[in-house]
Fold:
Amino acid sequence: MKALTNINARSIADAVAAASAAAARGQAFAFSGGGTDLLQQIKDGTNQADVLINLRTVREARTVAVSPTETLIGGLLTLSELASHTALSGPGWAVLREAAASAGTPQIRNLATLAGNVTQRPWCWYYRSGFPCFKAGGSECFSVNGEHQQHAIFGGGPSYSVHPSDLAPALVALDATFEVTGPGGTRRIAAGEFFVLPSQNPARENVLAATELLSGVRIPTPAAGVVSTYLKITDREAWTHAEVSVAAVLSMEGAHIRTASLVLGGVAPIPWRLTDVAQLLCGRALSAAVAAEAGTMAIAQAQPLPKNGHKVPMTSAAVERTLLRLAPSA
Ligand SMILES: Cc1cc2nc3c(=O)[nH]c(=O)nc-3n(C[C@H](O)[C@H](O)[C@H](O)COP(=O)(O)OP(=O)(O)OC[C@H]3O[C@@H](n4cnc5c(N)ncnc54)[C@H](O)[C@@H]3O)c2cc1C
Structure:
């Protein structure tokens, strides 16, 4: 591996200043959370950074602050901390805890940060193997006519890699707002506007500018009656990204669903919100028949590639199973 310059940032502002200074010097740089993806990117040659701005030395953005209406979660909390945080113990937070606990391995979760997980780059085998694809600044998606068993069935084109983060669908389902800090200060971006489809920009997965970092997320504090869960299907038992995942947040009144928020992972280049399914569920009693109906509706717009059709019934079954998990009698 090439020689790298490491800068230990002392604060979020310090990290942003270091990024701006590196940019002004014409140096390629990257923020490093846990480094679990970034160092792989550098080894793969998909990231040309010469300067690493280390966020592990930053003391702030590592807490959870709960108020009755809103919860602020620091972007530098690790996945392990998120999965077991006492402030996130209620049923409304289960989706976030379960998503965090499902990612990678214990070693990865002990290092990986919320922000790094959400902004990790795609793990498409062509991109990571040095092919000059859209993600690498090229003009082709090699998966379309190649191997795409794990690629998108929704929202694909011109690139078909899927968004790899387990936390991202959970945060979107919880209606998070992302706090992004850059040289001009901190701006807030609704989760639904943070992620970018390849039809908008095939090289990027989010709207972050190079000198901006994700410093935290704000989430409406789940009210009484809110239940949630994260279901993840993988092609092996551990250590891997979702084939299909479902993040579900339901506000219940007895057996009836008052509001629903359902977001898929592993099937699209961004966390894929199931708006129609959520509308279908509102006001209905959560029964096996309703869960099956939701599963059928979830795949109505699916557009599989020739070799990833298995994801379509898998998605339908995953949505159905997720809802059944949340049924009052379950
Ligand atoms: C074997 C293996 C299995 C895995 N399985 C899963 C899985 O099941 N589910 C899953 O979700 N992930 C999985 N991953 C990916 C892993 O979760 C990510 O590598 C990790 O979450 C990234 O977090 P990090 O803090 O280490 O990010 P880093 O590696 O430090 O950074 C990742 C990217 O985000 C950028 N970045 C970091 N912090 C910030 C910030 N604050 N603001 C803006 N940009 C930032 C970096 O520059 C880099 O481009 C797996 C990885 C491996 C190696």
Observations:
- The chain has twelve helices and twelve strands.
- The domain at 61-330 is CATH 3.30.465.10 (Uridine Diphospho-n-acetylenolpyruvylglucosamine Reductase; domain 3).
